[in-house]
Structures are given as C-alpha cells and as structure tokens.
C-alpha cells in the first residue's frame, strides 16, 4: 500500500530522490494516510485538489510530524529563510493532533469553483462577495464558514504550506482556518488566473452551532 501511495505522490514531492520520498512517507502510518485521504474518490476533484485535502488533513491529524516532514522538506528544498512566521508555525503545529478530518462537500466545492473561476477570468484577488456566495449554505448546513485564497502557486505542497506559514498576515487567518477544529467540511478549486497564472480557493464549513 505504501509503495502505491509513494508512486501516486511522486508529482507532489518529485524533486526528492527515491530514498528521500520513502524516508518521508515511512514516517507516516498507512492507516493515517488513508484516514487523511478523504478526497481520493471525489469525482469532481482533479489530482491536485485531492492532494491539497490530503496535505491539510495530515497537518490536522499530526501537526508535529507534518512539521518535521513536509514543512521541513519545503523550507529546505525552496531555500526559504526561517523567519518569525515559519518559527511560529513550527510551534503551532506541535500542539495540533487528531483534529477532525476535512471531508469534501459538493456545495462548498461549487462555491470555491465559482469564485476561483471568476477570479481567474477577471484577475480579482481576495474574498469578493463572500457573504453573498455563502448565503445558500450559511445557517444550514453550516453554522461557521471560512475561505482561503492562494495566488501564483500550482502544486499542492506550495499551496498548503504557504497558507500555513501565512507570511505577512498578522492575523494568521489562513493558518487558523486550516487548523481550526470546528471545521470538518471543505471545498477546493484550483483554476487558471489571468494575472497570477494560478489561483486556488479553499472553503471551509463547520456544522456545530
């Protein structure tokens, strides 16, 4: 099973050597990967969107292990200099474990798709008309909602890790959304963007009142 997962994830960490890939994934239990891979059978997601959900869920299930594997790999491979945002992410992930996994939902995915598609066509950035876009689902079935938007990144690890680092965002809103225990539903859409080449919208929903 693990070797199949390694093969499927080659694109995600393709710049690593074969031994490097196995070294990372051998630290993750097969059952944990399976638990996190909630989008694997989602027919309206492409492979990148499925991997985004997988990575977010791994960070929620075992933040400390995520930090020592994917976060450390990303920083080392990108040549990123550790700053206060990176250091605070390491600290935050140490206290994250066994959060509810995010389950893909068609209603949230449609909202994310609409915003990512329109943003890409117009060159818009940000959360325009968020209240209006979420109105059909707010209150029922979701009592809490949030949205992350990423621009200029294509690969799942770029998108998830940069949102978690949240460099320059004092509120750390993107990080807090990904690691928020009240969210258990998610919608993801990655689409072209006329100015930034790529954009990704991730919408979160919580059903607890």
Summarize the structure.
The protein has about 210 residues and is α+β, with helices and mostly antiparallel strands.
What does this entry look like structurally?
- This protein has 209 residues and is of the alpha+beta class.
- Helix content is 49%, strand content 14%.
- It has a four-stranded mixed β-sheet with strand order 1-3-4-2, sandwiched between helices.
- Helix 4 crosses helix 5, helix 4 packs across helix 9 and helix 5 packs antiparallel against helix 6.
- The protein starts with a helix and ends with a strand.
- The N terminus is likely disordered.
What percent of residues adopt helix (DSSP H or I)? 40-55%
Could you say which overall geometry the principal axes of the C-alpha atoms support? globular
Ranges with pLDDT <50 over ≥5 residues? 1-20
Q: Compute the separation of the termini in Å.
A: 39 Å
- State the order of secondary-structure elements, H for helix, E for strand: HHHHHHEHHEHHEE
Work out the number of β strands: 4
Strand content: 5-15%
What is the arithmetic mean of pLDDT?
Answer: 89
Number of helices: 10
Report the oligomer: single chain
Question: Which structural class do the helices and strands define?
Answer: alpha+beta
Radius of gyration: 16 Å
Main sheet attributes: strand count, strand direction, barrel closure: 4 strands, mixed
Strand arrangement within the widest β-sheet reads 1-3-4-2
């Amino acid at each position: 099973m693990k070797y199949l997962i390694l093969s499927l994830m080659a694109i995600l960490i393709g710049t690593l050597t074969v031994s490097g890939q196995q070294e990372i994934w051998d630290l993750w239990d097969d059952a944990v990967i399976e638990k996190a891979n909630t989008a694997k059978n989602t027919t309206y997601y492409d492979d990148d969107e499925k991997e985004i959900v997988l990575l977010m869920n791994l960070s929620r299930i075992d933040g400390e292990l995520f930090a020592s594997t994917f976060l450390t790999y990303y920083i080392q491979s990108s040549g990123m200099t550790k700053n206060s945002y990176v250091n605070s992410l390491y600290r935050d992930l140490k206290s994250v474990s066994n959060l509810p996994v995010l389950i893909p939902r068609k209603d949230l995915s449609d909202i994310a798709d609409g915003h990512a598609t329109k943003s890409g066509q117009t060159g818009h950035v940000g959360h325009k008309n968020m209240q209006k876009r979420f109105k059909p689902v707010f209150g029922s079935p979701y009592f809490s909602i949030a949205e992350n938007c990423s621009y200029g990144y294509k690969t799942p690890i770029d998108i998830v890790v940069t949102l978690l680092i949240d460099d320059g965002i004092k509120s750390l809103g993107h990080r807090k959304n990904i690691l928020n225990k009240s969210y258990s539903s998610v919608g993801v859409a990655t689409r072209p963007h006329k100015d930034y080449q790529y954009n990704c919208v991730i919408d979160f929903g919580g059903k607890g009142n």
